[in-house]
Amino acid sequence: MQKTFKGIPTSGGIAIAKVHHLTQQLTSNQERSIGFLYEQNRIKNAICDAVFEIESMLNENLSVEAEGILLTQVAILKDPELISNIENKIRKNRINAAQAFELTMNEFIEIFKNSNNHMINEKTADLKDIKYRVLKILNQENKQYEYNEEVILVAEELYPSETIKLDKTFIKGIITEKGSKTSHAAILSKQMGIPSISGIDIHTLKNDDLIILDGDEGLIIVNPKDETIRKYQSIRENFYQLKKKMKYELKCLTETQDGKEIHLLSNLGST
């Protein structure tokens, strides 16, 4: 039975594919601390590894915004106050590196989340992204997401570094429960030309459900009828042809009065 849900449009475009839920749940293990020096060494190594991972991504062909997000994350990880907070918790509470790191990050996340400054609020996703990355390293989890068919990714929240690494060959759309039009993930998905919607109860969507994602109107159509699929396929094709035509028409040459040629190019990737 066809059902329609309304969310917040965060990146325009039409996607038609099956649902794939992204599992991101990760917590610190509850093992006892082996000792301050051992745990101190563990957290320092984990943070160094996280910085290396992020800086490796900077070598890829990224947008200015994507580079800025990753550089901000590196700066946070290198902040002496972060290390000091973690080490104090290891020493005073006699807990392991992962527990101390998670507690510290949760404190910073709450501060950022409760700030009256919208720009600071948006950086909460960066902190969650960092927390997830370092905990994966400390827990020795190296989960890689590989796809061999077109899917629409569904997650509670998509972190910036996850968005940057998405393979557009298979990831045709993004649906999240949390997020806004100005979130880093939304900005990045728009730049990458991946339709996305937020503000959806993701529990209403099941793995392998065929859905249509309308990123312009913020609509999700679950189990669409054949006629609905044909309608949106036509809209998608018309949009693709219009985009192609605009790129061709805007890629032209002009000449100034002094004879200098100027190439006019338009970035339609986020149109």
Specify the biggest β-sheet: 8 strands, mixed
Distance between the termini: 32 Å
Q: CATH H-level name of the largest domain... which superfamily?
A: Phosphohistidine domain
pLDDT under 50 segments (min length 5)? 265-271
Measured on Cα atoms, how large is the radius of gyration? 22 Å
What does it look like?
The structure is a single chain. This protein has helices at 36-57, 64-77, 80-93, 97-113, 118-122, 124-138, 160-164, 184-192, 226-250, and strands at 3-6, 8-11, 14-21, 151-155, 171-176, 196-198, 210-214, 219-222, 252-255, 261-264. The protein is an alpha/beta fold and 271 residues long. The strands form two sheets. An eight-stranded mixed sheet has the order 1-8-7-3-4-5-6-2. It has a two-stranded antiparallel ribbon with strand order 9-10. Helix 1 packs across helix 6. The chain is elongated and about 65 Å long. It starts with a strand and ends in a 7-residue tail after the last strand.
